[in-house]
């Protein structure tokens, strides 16, 4: 321990002659502790929400999604698909045809997304999170079935137990050169048997109906065209590495997106919100640190004679400044350490016991999700150090300007 650190520690531990300075120091520590604790808790909640969003999307979206770089669909053939399946790390390859369609059930109508998928769709671990009730199959070629988002099913008043009432699907046909006056010739019609509901996230619940690929292909007249291919990666394989292999094999005509890239805008929004909350709470922490400024200013006035003695003994202005800056650092870091520990304990209790509920009966999770990321602790500590230096610099400079001749 160098001399300035020794003196700063003695000042920090010793009782001040003026009780007001002690009170200010304690208030400073409490303010820093509360601000730090709030930062830890809020940032952990944002981390938890980000993880929750990823887990919910992972229940519906593929780990990797292949789409045409330009246009809505692309041609496929069995030989090409087999080559993709043979790539290292590719476990399951699901063909997808997705488009808007009109659904009707007992007079109720709704425009939603029909997602035609090959039989191995459910082999990708879909609907692992959220809610799912009903049959986990998509029927047969003769009686194709459908898995409906809960919002779609509720809006259409679909009764899963009523097997005699099908779900009608309408899709407009491509325009012909010859016009027709018969409206029935302007759209294709298909029938699905409602088999199950899923509930993951409102974006999916209110928009999607999962149907067999063959049914969708015939209704939409897609032939060998597909709107996407979804890939499940082998366990133990790196998703990033498999993504690079697919990009290298497919070339620039296709885009290969991982789970985050499929919802890049939403993930970016959550990260931006977390950043702005961090900056806002850091600003509040900065306001709370004004107490450090006042307590050090009062301490500098109280210790003028001590400073004069030190200067008479040969202490430089830099040494005096360092004493008071380190004194402020001790006050702030003590409060920060208390805040970090309390914040971590609150997050641990929330994760274990769910102290604060979301207050939404239909939510996938009952309480606010939290996730402690140790890198956040580093950023919070750096913010506290920066604020402490700014709050301590002016009182430290004033203390270093004490003139020895006027006090000795």
UniProtKB/TrEMBL annotation:
Annotated coiled-coil segments of the chain: none
Membrane topology: Multi-pass membrane protein
Predominant place of localization: membrane
Chain ranges of the MacB-like periplasmic core domain: 25-247
Domain ABC3 transporter permease C-terminal per the UniProt entry, residue ranges: 280-401
InterPro entries noted in UniProt: ABC3_permease_C, Lipoprotein-release_system, MacB_PCD
Signal sequence coordinates: none
Keyword Disulfide bond assigned: no
Keywords associated with the record: Cell membrane, Membrane, Transmembrane, Transmembrane helix
Transmembrane domains' residue ranges: 20-46, 275-302, 323-346, 372-391
Subcellular location: Cell membrane
Highest taxon listed in the record's lineage: Bacteria
Record-linked PANTHER family: LIPOPROTEIN-RELEASING SYSTEM TRANSMEMBRANE PROTEIN LOLE (PTHR30489:SF0)
Family, as annotated: Belongs to the ABC-4 integral membrane protein family. LolC/E subfamily.
Protein name: ABC transporter permease
Organism of origin: Algoriphagus sediminis
């Amino acid at each position: 321990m160098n001399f300035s650190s020794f003196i700063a520690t003695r000042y920090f531990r010793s009782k001040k002659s003026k009780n007001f300075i002690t009170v200010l120091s304690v208030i400073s520590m409490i303010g820093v502790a509360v601000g730090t604790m709030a930062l830890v808790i809020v940032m952990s909640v944002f981390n938890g929400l980000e993880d929750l969003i990823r887990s919910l999307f992972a229940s519906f979206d593929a780990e990797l999604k292949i789409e045409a770089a330009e246009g809505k669909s692309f041609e496929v053939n069995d030989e090409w698909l087999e080559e993709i399946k043979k790539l290292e790390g590719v476990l399951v390859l699901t063909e997808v045809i997705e488009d808007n369609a009109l659904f009707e059930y007992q007079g109720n109508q709704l425009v939603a997304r029909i997602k035609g998928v090959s039989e191995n769709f459910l082999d990708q671990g879909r609907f692992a999170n959220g809610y799912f009730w009903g049959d986990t199959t998509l029927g047969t070629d003769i009686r194709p079935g459908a898995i409906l988002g809960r919002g779609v099913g509720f809006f259409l008043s679909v009764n899963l137990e009523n097997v005699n009432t099908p779900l009608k699907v309408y899709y407009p046909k491509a325009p012909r050169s010859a016009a027709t006056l018969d409206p029935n010739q302007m759209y294709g019609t298909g029938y699905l048997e409602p088999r199950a509901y899923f509930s993951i996230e409102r974006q999916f619940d209110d928009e999607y109906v999962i149907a067999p690929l063959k049914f969708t292909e015939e209704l939409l007249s897609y032939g060998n065209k597909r709107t996407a291919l979804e890939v499940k990666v082998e366990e133990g394989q790196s998703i990033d590495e498999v993504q690079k292999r697919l990009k290298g094999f497919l070339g620039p005509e296709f885009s290969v997106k991982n789970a985050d890239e499929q919802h890049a805008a939403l993930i970016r929004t959550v990260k931006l919100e977390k950043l702005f909350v961090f900056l806002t709470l850091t600003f509040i922490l900065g306001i709370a640190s004004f107490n450090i400024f006042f307590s050090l200013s009062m301490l500098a006035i109280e210790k003028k004679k001590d400073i004069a003695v030190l200067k008479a003994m040969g202490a430089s202005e830099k040494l005096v400044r360092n004493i008071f800056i380190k004194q402020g650092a001790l006050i702030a870091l003590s409060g920060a350490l208390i805040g970090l520990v309390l914040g971590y304990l609150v997050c641990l209790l929330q994760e274990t016991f769910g102290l604060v509920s979301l207050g939404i009966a239909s939510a996938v999770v009952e309480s606010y999700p939290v996730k402690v990321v140790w890198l956040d602790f580093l950023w919070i500590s750096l913010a506290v150090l920066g604020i402490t230096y700014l709050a301590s610099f002016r009182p430290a400079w004033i203390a270093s300007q004490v003139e020895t001749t006027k006090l000795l």
